[in-house]
């Protein structure tokens, strides 16, 4: 009898193990809209330092911006009112999607062909452009002044390649030696302040969070359109299609234009 019991127990355990290993699809492919609705919480990776897009007010711990409003609107569609925001950077947002910590990224994430190999992106909800932040007394007026300068960029961002290409268009050669890479934007700002870099290069929307009395954005220097899409885990096609339908619908019916205007952000950049 004891033997039979032991056998029964081990068979049961085997089944339980098999269920853990192969049966839980959400662990590997990410949560479906149904899973998220049932859980009651949508988990979104957002920026904390991009005014108008994803900005954290550290006093009352609340977020604001286009990407925050979009997240709440998506939650509403799912029939839930709870959104859990996770701060992300250019370097961490993809990993957090892959690990299943978050359901989507809404964080100034530029759609590129290379990134599309790793994640799903919706149709863009906003188009920005890359720009430069320099000290007011730097004498730097445009890309032509950068040849002998050091430019601060973020690891994992599109900025360095975008600037090299824009410089090449003006017959200015920039190489890796012209760049210094940092993990976060506050670190680039500190390097600009202390003179370790001469310019801070990234999307204009992100630079807007670092303007102060000592520096300015070169408004005439805007290049390389940056199309922001909502990103999801590569295999999670059901969730990606759900979001794609929402975004295309909201672009058509003016919802997104309204959210952009409500957040005091200028309309999408149009390349000349
Ligand atoms: N939007 C650009 C990118 O996705 C700049 C980096 C960032 O979003 O932080 O690479």
| Radius of gyration from the alpha-carbon trace, in angstroms | 22 Å
Largest sheet: 6 strands, mixed
Bound molecules: glutamic acid
**Class derived from helix and strand content:** alpha/beta
The N- and C-terminal alpha carbons lie at a distance of 82 Å
CATH class of the largest domain: Alpha Beta
> Whole-number average pLDDT?
91
CATH architecture designation of the largest domain: 3-Layer(aba) Sandwich
The third-level CATH topology of the largest domain is D-Maltodextrin-Binding Protein, domain 2
| Topology, number of strands | 14
Amount of beta strand: 15-25%
> Tell me, what's the shape?
elongated
Number of domains: 2
Into which percent range does the helicity of residues fall? Answer: 25-40%
Q: What is the H-and-E element order? A: HHHEEEEHEHEHEEEHEHEHEEEHH
CATH superfamily of the largest domain: Periplasmic binding protein-like II
Walk me through the structure.
Helix content is 39%, strand content 23%. By secondary structure, it is α/β, with parallel strands linked by helices. The chain has two domains: 29-125 and 229-271, 3-Layer(aba) Sandwich (D-Maltodextrin-Binding Protein, domain 2), CATH 3.40.190.10; 128-226, 3-Layer(aba) Sandwich (D-Maltodextrin-Binding Protein, domain 2), CATH 3.40.190. The longest helix is centred in the N-terminal third of the chain and has 22 residues, at 2-23. The chain starts with a helix and ends in a 10-residue tail after the last helix. The protein binds glutamic acid.
